[in-house]
Every structure is written in C-alpha cells, then in structure tokens.
Write a structure and sequence with these properties.
alpha+beta; four-stranded antiparallel β-sheet; 5 helices; 10 strands
Length: about 180
C-alpha cells in the first residue's frame, strides 16, 4: 500500500477544535493499542448512564478526523482528504464476529478496525476512491450495504457520522486490527 492515510489528531476535550498534529493511520493504531488510553476506557465502560458516558467520553478521550487533515474541526476546513471512511457501528451483539466478517469482506479494503469506546461497537476504517464519488456518497452507499448485507439497524450503522470532519474518539483496544499491507509501508 502506497498511502500513509493522514488525519488530524485532537486532544480532549471534544470542544477542542484545533488539531494538535497530523498523524498516520499506523500512528492511530499504535495509540489505540498502547496502554495510554486504558484508564479512560476502563472508567468509561463502567458508566451505565448513556448521558454520563457521552459526557465522560467528550471530556476525556482524544479524537481523530479519519477523513483527512483539517486546519480546524469543521467541514469547511478540510486541507486534504485521506481516502478513508470510518463507519461507526453501535450496539453490536457480537463485536468480534462482525469485525472478522468485515475484515474478510471482499468489497471493501479494511485498513483498521477497533472496538469503540463504549465496548459494544466497532470503528471500521476502509479505503475509498474519491474519483468514483464523494465522501458522503460513499458513506451512504456503505451504510446501506451494511444494513442490507449484515442486518444492521438504522441506529447500529450510525447515520450521524456522515460528514467529513466527524470526530472518531480513540480508546484502548489491544486487539486493534491493522491491514498487514500497511505494516510494510
């Protein structure tokens, strides 16, 4: 694989809209796999109130913008698209099973996949070709595919992450999947 898949990295809290730096997908995977985010992830997964969990996540977890590099976290401030689409899959009964099925899906090239901060979801990073259609068209098509082929419900294939500047919170997952071809770059 020839690409580094660069994106912006933001320190917590979510109200911080100025990126700290540009990172590669491999650097993101290393952060997710490292123990750095384990304490925050452990605390978050013990919170039973959805509202409290959302607040904790927003205050304590760093995030990236998988769609690309931004000068500021809004759609108008996209500097360079990464060629990556991140699907946020929520409330999945068998997260590991879905992860393995998606990695093997021949229609999409999985770049990275990890368990979401809540523990019952998946962040699925795939390669997209922007010469075929734009980011939002890709999102709609992939979301529809996931709903029809994998039986995901409307809320499981989160429709709110359609825009390019959407934040993807990072968390601890020692089992993060990284496409082996990326490791030879």
């Amino acid at each position: 694989m020839e690409k580094n898949y660069e994106m912006s990295f933001f320190c917590a809290p979510i109200t911080n809209k100025v990126p700290l730096r540009t990172v590669t997908l491999i650097e993101v995977a290393k952060m997710v796999k490292s123990l750095w985010l384990e304490p925050q992830t452990t605390v978050l997964r013990k919170i039973t109130s959805e509202a409290e969990a959302r607040e904790f996540k927003g205050k304590n977890l760093p995030y990236v913008t998988p769609a690309g590099v931004f000068s500021y976290c809004n759609d108008q401030s996209l500097v360079k698209h990464s060629g990556v689409l991140c699907m946020d899959l929520d409330h999945i009964g068998d997260v590991d099973g879905l992860k393995h099925r998606l990695i093997k899906d021949s229609l999409f090239e999985t770049l990275m996949a990890f368990r979401s901060p809540s523990g019952d979801g998946l962040k699925w990073f795939i390669k997209i070709d922007l010469t075929r259609c734009d980011h939002r068209q890709w999102f709609d098509a992939v979301r529809n595919y996931l709903m029809s082929m994998y039986g995901l419900g409307d809320k499981q294939a989160d429709p709110s992450v359609r825009n390019e500047s959407r934040a993807c919170f990072l968390c601890y997952d020692p089992q993060v999947y990284v496409n082996p071809a990326l490791l030879t770059v």
